[in-house]
Amino acid sequence: MAEITLPQLGETVTEGTITKWFKKVGDSVALDEPLFEVSTDKVDTEVPSPIAGVLTEIRVAEGDTVPVGTVIAVVGDASAAAPAPAAASTPAVAPSTLASSNVSTPPPPSASAPAAAASAPAAPASTLASSNVSAASPAPAATAAGTSTVLSPVVRKLIAENNLNVAAITGTGPGGRITRDDVLAAISRGGATSAAPAAAAAPTSAPAASAPQRAAVPKAVAGARDEVVALSKIRQVTGAHMVASQAISPHVLSVVEVDYVNVDVTRLRVKEEFKVQEGFSLTYLPFIARAVVDALADFPHMNASLGDNELIVHRYVDLGIAVDLDYQGLLVPVVRDAEGKRLRALSREINDLATRTRSRQLAPDEISGGTFTISNNGSAGSVLTMPIINQPQVAILSTDAISKKPVVIEAPGFSESIAIHPVGNLAMAWDHRAFDGAYAAGFLSRVKQILETRDWSSEV
After folding, report:
1. What does the DSSP 8-state code read for residue 112?
2. 392 prior amide bond cis, ω within 30
3. Can 298 be counted among the known catalytic residues?
4. What is the pLDDT of residues 292-322, one digit of tens each?
């Protein structure tokens, strides 16, 4: 007999909600066969069985939230007879409630800012609760009549980030539990803030003097010639996080135009050999990432997060790279300690993370903790993109399409001529609370200078 425990699904993950069992008591289980699905505050993921045998006991029911390390099932020897199925027992540790939640930052998000992607670094104390979006009051979660107080990490986080009233959300999960879809539906309807019940309970001498209500958001209605496509979970979560980010940060856009002919001197010369050696193509992205990392050393306030009336400057660079999931959404895997990696090492890690992101093989901690984000929109052909900041970071850079254009170049003797070079924009959205335009422009100019003047041959 072997006890199956809830695994550590990332360095910062402390609990998880069992959302689905793929096997029932008495079923045979193969090694590495998906056994259950778990939801954490980072991602939803399938967990394979660490042992082959027969599932003899399920101790945690679907919808229950338990700490990491809790025994959730028992798998016996395949030759042993399975006992009769029994109802899943209640976890020994009390389930988490909204009252115990710490609001974490939105996941990544953005194509502009990728969804469920990079969350707040563990070190910063900043959360959405410290900005314009306040955390939901814990009281409704503990006392809301007719609503379960057992909330999964993902649900708890969405409720807090969007300042929703738990009592106003109808749960459709097992036992009336509130699911993520229930919360997303409330958000799409405009939601009910935690202040709503208090306002309703306040005595009023005249109905006409009641507080003004939020204007209804116009909704489209499908016609006979329309096709209705339900928004996926990642689309709904992305939308909620983007609205929150724009409400929190005063976004400003700065753009520089970069001439990549200097990069191409090295890239075109080694690209065939590089592909044979590494198994993938050498694109412009690693060059840009390397330049960004070096420029952050010169402009450290770009590599920071907003706390409670403070700027938390990181002395390391965890570089988030937005990855497209075949037009179905975005995730932001993170290159850890990018400041210590040269071009070839960055290329390898970016390629590895992108490959595993598209095949959904990332661990939760690989999409959290970024300090600066790059959104690679140029690969899809965009000319100029304003990304949305990945909270609580203070800036996000969009790499737009690189195409050949006529440029003016200076020849020896101060004469000028026209040449055809590969040129593209780097567009950066930044938080005006953290610094001013001159600082942002100085950072972009430094990135441009590195790309246009460095001898890249030593890096490959």
Report:
1. S
2. yes
3. no
4. 999 999 999 999 999 999 999 999 999 999 9
